Amino acid sequence: MQAHESLPAAPASSVDEDSTATRRDAGTGESSRANRGWWDRNADEYQIEHGTFLGDDRFVWGPEGLDEVEAELLGPAEELAGRDVLEIGAGAAQCSRWLAAQGARPVALDLSHRQLQHALRIDGGKVPLVEADAGALPFLDGSFDLACSAYGALPFVADPVRVLREVRRVLRPGGRFVFSVTHPIRWAFPDEPGPEGLSVAASYFDRTPYVEQDEEGRAVYVEHHRTVGDRVRDVVAAGFRLVDLVEPEWPAWNTQEWGGWSPLRGNLIPGTAIFVCERD
Ligand SMILES: C[S@@+](CC[C@H](N)C(=O)[O-])C[C@H]1O[C@@H](n2cnc3c(N)ncnc32)[C@H](O)[C@@H]1O
């Protein structure tokens, strides 16, 4: 949930001062480096802007505000106690804190040191934190019962199958991985909350990454687009079964905009896709 500003309508204020937005290829190493830097530089602002909506210990799947309390995509809350859960791209570990309150044993992993410092600020180190790239998880095979990711890592990586394979590896048989990403259809529209965000401006089928780059052409922020079909194939290629694909509807109570996500657009087109995957 952050700064993807579809070209050509990117508001200049959302792009770092000395960078420009473009669409071009970006590999695994470049994407990882760029996004670590971006999240380290922008974590403070992100937590100030979105921390209240996210809550210190709520589990929100996306800007629509779908809460795991009602969604139960990881299973009934009363069955979470005692389960080992890995949260990927955890940010300030809000979801992990909710999981801990249900009696689960979460581990919050993120690429960004600064995001994890916000986790420490909030709970003083109650949730175990791991600084690592989702593409190389520093855990033994079969370490977790469940894994989850609310807009963490998957929108930002060049090789999502690699991440999904890693998650499958660290899950125990019967384990479940639930992850949310920007709904792929959003890539066809300008990332604007108002009416200008309602007209198709780019091909849904163009997988070229969104890249913000500095004056030397070095990427400073990268998001990767996969179509719905791509995501399904990625999940299957990694050895998971896809058991549900949830497209949260915009609820009447939510009057808040989050970047290009708004009540206006949310009432017309989906903004988030949540993939529920299981390993046998
Ligand atoms: C939009 S935030 C989501 C965090 C949290 N779920 C929330 O809603 O605030 C995306 C997070 O993914 C992390 N991230 C991006 N790429 C990653 C990667 N390759 N491995 C691990 N974390 C990554 C970022 O550092 C950032 O904290």
TrEMBL record:
Residues 1-36 are annotated as: Disordered. It comes from the Bacteria. GO terms for molecular function: S-adenosylmethionine-dependent methyltransferase activity. Signal peptide: none annotated. One of its GO terms (biological process) is methylation. InterPro entries: Methyltransf_11, SAM-dependent_MTases_sf. Residues 86-179 form the Methyltransferase type domain. Keywords: Methyltransferase, Transferase. The keyword Transferase applies. Pfam families: Methyltransf_11. The keyword Methyltransferase applies. Gene3D superfamilies: Vaccinia Virus protein VP39 (3.40.50.150). Transmembrane segments: none annotated. This is Class I SAM-dependent methyltransferase.
